[in-house]
């Protein structure tokens, strides 16, 4: 059985606008973090939502050898989890309840075992002390961490995270990427993460997809894809990549080669 996610001749968009047209992507690996990069409006969220079956789409999607497009939505929702940029407002649950609801939705399991698992995950994310706080009383970053707990507890085969770091401080960005990498590796998940910070992509990504105007510009290992040429072409920035004293490559932006858009 072919492992990983295969995307072939895939088109997605909205009633009046096709955003992704005939996209074919080399297989996305299991057990690794794929970072999805590209400028504002290039179609990253549209692609993730379409992979989750939440946007109109046509074409072929194969998840670990099984076709996704023809699967009933409930089965697909068990296998594929999409975490949007922000959690829906107005949900009157406390943090622990919301994670348990997510757990139940995908495995039907509840009770003491599920509760212990949920608490362990909140602990790992450093938010166990918030377990009994209501979602609408949390800060933006805290909500983002809860969203991540809700997604991870569902144990998906394909985990789609749309800018999961956007509200997190520096320490949490690092910690969360490490945690996502560990879960991804241990549970053999295919994880796709949208980030805008190119240095996070370079440091924590294990595979990179670079999109521009709904088209794939490049894909592969971070150091092969995140190059000054590709950054100039997609983001219009002039950049250089240098290793710091610890040998970790870093991107420095020296200026613009083009105006946005
Ligand atoms: N509901 C919608 N209806 C119609 N067009 C939409 C809708 N949502 C997004 N679009 C359009 O689709 C294109 C891609 O948007 P998308 O949100 O996928 O971009 P993105 O790469 O995630 O951007 P960003 O980095 O700013 O979040 C944009 O031109 C946007 O205007």
TrEMBL record:
GO terms for molecular function: ATP binding; ATP hydrolysis activity. Coiled coil: none annotated. Its main location: membrane. The keyword ATP-binding applies. SMART domains: AAA (SM00382). GO terms for biological process: iron ion transport. The keyword 4Fe-4S does not apply. It is found in: Cell membrane. This is Iron complex transport system ATP-binding protein. It is a peripheral membrane protein. Keywords: ATP-binding, Cell membrane, Ion transport, Iron, Iron transport, Membrane, Nucleotide-binding, Transport. GO terms for cellular component: plasma membrane. InterPro entries: AAA+_ATPase, ABC_transporter-like_ATP-bd, ABC_transporter-like_CS, P-loop_NTPase, Siderophore_ABC-ATPase. Belongs to the ABC transporter superfamily. Drug exporter-2 (TC 3.A.1.117) family. Residues 5-238 form the ABC transporter domain.
């Amino acid at each position: 059985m072919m492992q990983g996610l295969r995307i072939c001749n895939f088109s997605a968009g909205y009633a009046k606008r096709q955003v992704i047209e005939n996209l074919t992507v080399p297989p996305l690996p299991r057990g690794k973090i794929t970072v999805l990069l590209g400028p504002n409006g290039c179609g990253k969220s549209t692609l993730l939502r379409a992979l989750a079956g939440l946007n109109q789409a046509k074409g072929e999607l194969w998840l670990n050898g099984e076709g996704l497009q023809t699967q009933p939505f409930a089965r697909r929702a068990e296998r594929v989890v999409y975490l949007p940029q922000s959690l829906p407002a107005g949900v009157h649950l406390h943090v622990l309840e919301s994670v348990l609801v997510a757990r139940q939705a995908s495995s039907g399991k509840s009770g003491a075992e599920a509760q212990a698992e949920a608490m362990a995950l909140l602990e790992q994310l450093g938010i166990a002390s918030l377990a009994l706080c209501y979602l609408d009383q949390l800060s933006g970053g805290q909500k983002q961490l809860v969203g991540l707990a809700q997604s991870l507890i569902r144990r998906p085969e394909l985990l789609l995270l749309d800018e999961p770091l956007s509200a997190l401080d520096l320490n949490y960005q690092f910690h969360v990427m490490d945690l996502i990498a560990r879960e991804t590796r241990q549970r053999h998940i295919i994880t796709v993460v949208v980030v805008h910070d190119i240095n996070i992509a370079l440091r924590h990504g294990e595979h990179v997809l670079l999109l521009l105007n709904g088209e794939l510009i490049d894909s592969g290992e971070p150091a092969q894809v995140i190059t000054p040429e590709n950054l100039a072409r997609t983001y219009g920035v002039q950049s250089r990549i240098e290793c710091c004293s610890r040998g970790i490559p870093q991107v420095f932006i020296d200026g613009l080669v083009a105006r946005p858009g």
